[in-house]
Design brief:
Blueprint: H1 2-17, H2 24-38, H3 40-48, H4 59-95, H5 102-130, E1 135-143, E2 154-158, H6 169-181, E3 186-190, H7 198-205, E4 217-220, H8 223-228, H9 230-239, E5 243-244, E6 248-252, E7 257-261, H10 277-281, E8 289-293, H11 300-305, E9 310-313, H12 325-330, E10 338-342, E11 345-349, E12 368-376
Parallel strand pairs: 1-12, 2-3, 3-4, 4-5, 7-8, 8-9, 9-11
Antiparallel strand pairs: 2-12, 6-7, 10-11
């Protein structure tokens, strides 16, 4: 991470600050702002404590620092694209034996200024999209072993809420209202509920107790629960009426549906139980429809091998930015958003219901309250 931040700062300085026709004191001031933005996580660590996922700083400080970091990141990629065009143009000039002029430098600075404006506006737009209340998005999935009586059943999916000390309880209450308005048969929350301790986040989490569904509300931990106090949160979420599944299952609808869930691979950080799909499904009736909840989609192959019919996951936030989603997919076994066939099992990856405050940006990948309509495969 440190090497990436150093490279980011050096490249933007070399291409964006150094060519400017400014006095050295102004270049030094711009460089200081650049360093603060590029090393955001380290700066927040110094002033906001060691919790990089939820630093103890005022909300406006977190928002401004995130906007600055995101702007520098976007500016970096825009400069790279501009340099690719610039390189082709310089090659053409060399082939034509045209000498460089001062006007070329002036035009370059003007282009950089325009790119910086685009980066600043894109970062602001992306953050506005990231912090918005999600709409209900309905999808149809065809799955194996769904009982005839359950044809057309609906599953509301919440994922990656990332509730922290700056989250408004009203924001979560509106998400709950929209989920309940869809009248789902089942509600599942597939990890990354929180970023912070129970003391810090209990008030904002409380509205989750109002979730309602015919077959109940189920959840599994995500990697951020292990950063925030896994055991404390598992107990607290259970007290809110969310049936937390840690490598186990529960039967609903008279035993026709087995809702199973696994822990997260980050359990190794705290010495807790590693995810075990076999243990989670052990004892489930042979003829039942087996729904697996797993925060990380990369666990899909194991779930399929253990006999799950459908796995619901989160973790990827859908890739957050159109185009960047391909990179996110590469780190998650190729899974990033929507439905996939994994052997005989269907995998559904939510785009996420909220966003992590460390990078709360969405462009072309809106957040969602998923509503899955399940039908039997022909």
């Amino acid at each position: 991470m440190l090497f990436v931040e150093i490279f980011l700062a050096l490249y933007v300085f070399w291409r964006g600050v150094w060519p400017l026709r400014l006095r050295w004191r102004w270049k030094a001031a711009l460089s200081a702002v650049l360093l603060l933005a590029a090393f955001k996580f380290h700066v927040l660590y110094l002033f906001g404590g060691p919790k990089f996922f939820a630093p103890d700083v005022p909300g406006w400080v977190l928002a401004v620092s995130t906007w600055m970091f995101t702007s520098v990141l976007f500016f970096f990629f825009l400069l790279l694209a501009a340099d690719a065009v610039r390189g082709v143009w310089l090659l053409v000039r060399v082939c034509r034996r045209v000498k460089g002029t001062e006007r070329f430098r002036t035009v370059g600075n003007r282009v950089n200024l325009a790119l910086l404006a685009v980066a600043l506006c894109s970062a602001a737009f992306g953050m506005a999209q990231g912090y918005g209340v999600p709409e209900v998005r309905e999808r149809t999935l065809s799955v194996n072993h769904l009982p005839a009586e359950c044809e057309g059943m609906s599953v509301a999916v919440l994922a990656d809420l990332h509730i922290d000390r700056t989250t408004s309880p009203g924001h979560i209450r509106e998400i709950v209202r929209r989920a309940n308005a869809a009248r789902p048969d089942l509600v599942v929350i597939v990890g990354d509920f929180v970023d912070g301790s129970v003391e810090e986040c209990a008030e904002a989490v409380q509205p989750l107790a109002e979730l309602k569904a015919r077959f109940g509300v189920f959840g599994v931990p995500g990697n951020h629960e292990y950063y925030s106090g896994y055991r404390e949160w598992m107990a607290h979420l259970s007290r809110l009426g969310i049936r937390m599944l840690d490598n186990r299952h529960e039967l609903v609808d008279g035993g026709r549906i087995a809702v199973a869930g696994v822990t997260d691979p980050n359990a190794s950080r705290s010495g807790d139980v590693f995810p075990d799909a076999g243990r989670a499904l052990a004892g489930a009736p042979d003829g039942s429809f087996k729904l697996m909840l797993a925060h990380q989609p990369r666990l899909a192959a194991d779930s399929a091998a253990r006999g799950a019919d459908l796995q619901v996951s989160g973790h990827t936030h859908g890739g957050m930015i159109l185009g960047v989603d391909r990179l996110i997919a590469a780190f998650n076994e190729g899974y990033v958003s929507g439905g996939y066939q994994v052997g005989t099992m269907v995998l559904y990856v939510s785009d996420g219901t909220c966003i992590w405050n460390g990078f709360p940006v969405r462009i072309g990948v809106p957040s969602e309250i998923g509503l899955l309509r399940l039908y039997r495969k022909p």
